[in-house]
Write a structure and sequence with these properties.
CATH architecture of the largest domain: Sandwich
Protein name: Cell surface receptor IPT/TIG domain protein
Organism: Candidatus Azambacteria bacterium GW2011_GWD2_46_48
Structural class: mainly beta
GO molecular function: calcium ion binding; hydrolase activity, hydrolyzing O-glycosyl compounds
Strand content: 35-45%
Number of strands: 23
Largest sheet: 5 strands, antiparallel
Keywords: Receptor
Distance between the termini: 30 Å
Number of helices: 3
Order of helices and strands: EEEEEEEEEEEEEEEEEEEEEEEHHH
InterPro entries: Dockerin_1_rpt, Dockerin_dom_sf, EF_Hand_1_Ca_BS, EF_hand_dom, Ig-like_fold, Ig_E-set, IPT_dom
Radius of gyration: 24 Å
């Protein structure tokens, strides 16, 4: 789970329904939290908060996270003893993007394994995949589709009881894959979004739940959106995309949220943690790499691209931190 806000620190902890969960500090405006599957077994509305220890800390206001019941196939009784049971067949079909890789993952509390892997070969992005011989009982399947550049779409989840003879899900419309060319831009500089979706379909980008921007995918399913950041406020923004099929024949779910920052000044390299500012956090990162014996890490602070780390890079960093 990705949480966005302000004034996060490295010791900030996300809480799900009042219980602290494993949290990774990304930046002062973003955290990621690991929510175990056990938190999602009961449907309902649950508060999400962020707790920051003293001094100056406390618990944030809450946001509501809704867990909805997953659709399940009807349960049928076991066949009488001695009666043959034919293997269960699982089938998925729908529209995605040419060249995509499909992964079917079977997961329960004991294991997680990929049971099928296929490539979408149809030029129109349609797919049909099936597998047979799943063990009898309840299963949780996820359908993961990655584009030809390895970017994943929104994962689809299905709870299935394979005591039913077959399980078929058809006419799925897969959300576009999404990549931001830059995660931090100066206001007035366009931010570019690209990815893959069903060929010739429409792509709709939603920014902060309000602003809409549209484009059309090409014959290969690739799309590109250029978004003017002039009307946007300084700070962090959220974007998600969906596809709409030609002729109004349906639309996908939204993609996972992507975060980007509109900053006051261009900080292409000295902003090491990509939070839209050069500050004490970046200074700590700079010093860490400066003292490292790992040349690959040291080269991350080669701010003038001259192939060496010296006082020139230090001077460039100091000039940038003074721009705040």
């Amino acid at each position: 789970m990705t949480l966005t806000g302000t004034d996060f620190v490295s010791t900030s902890v996300a809480r799900f329904n009042g219980v602290s969960r494993t949290t990774t500090y990304v930046s002062s405006t973003q955290l990621t939290a690991t929510i175990p599957s056990s938190d999602l077994t009961t449907a309902g509305n649950f508060p999400i908060t962020v707790f920051t220890p003293s001094p100056g800390g406390g618990e944030s206001g809450s946001k509501t996270f809704t867990v909805t019941p997953a659709p399940t196939a009807p349960t049928v009784p076991l066949p009488p003893v001695g009666e043959a049971v034919r293997p269960t067949t699982i089938i998925f079909s729908g529209k995605a993007f040419p060249g995509g890789k499909m992964f079917m993952v079977d997961k329960d509390i004991r294991y997680e394994k990929t049971v099928s892997q296929d490539t979408i070969t149809n030029d129109d992005g349609t797919f049909y995949t099936s597998f047979i011989g799943i063990l009898q009982g309840p299963h949780s399947f996820s359908l993961i589709i990655k584009d030809k550049e390895g970017r994943g779409s929104q994962t689809k989840f299905f709870n299935i009881n394979t005591l039913v003879q077959d399980f078929v899900v058809k006419d799925l419309i897969i959300a576009p894959t999404v990549a931001l060319v830059a995660y931090s831009v100066t206001r007035g500089t366009a931010t570019v979004v690209k990815g893959y979706t069903t060929p010739q379909s429409g792509v709709v980008a939603e920014i902060d739940g309000i602003i809409k921007k549209e484009a059309q995918a090409g014959q290969d399913g690739a799309y590109k959106l250029t978004i003017d950041t002039g009307p946007l406020e300084f700070g962090s923004h959220q974007m998600r995309l969906k596809q709409t099929l030609v002729g109004g024949k349906g639309e996908s779910d939204y993609s996972p949220l992507k975060n980007f920052i509109v900053s006051r000044v261009l900080l292409p390299k000295a902003d090491f943690n990509d939070d839209g500012a050069v500050d004490i956090r970046d200074w700590s990162i700079f010093l860490f790499h400066w003292g490292s014996k790992d040349m690959e890490k040291r080269m991350k602070i080669d701010l003038n691209n001259d192939g060496k780390i010296d006082i020139s890079d230090f001077s460039i960093f100091v000039r940038n931190i003074r721009k705040k």
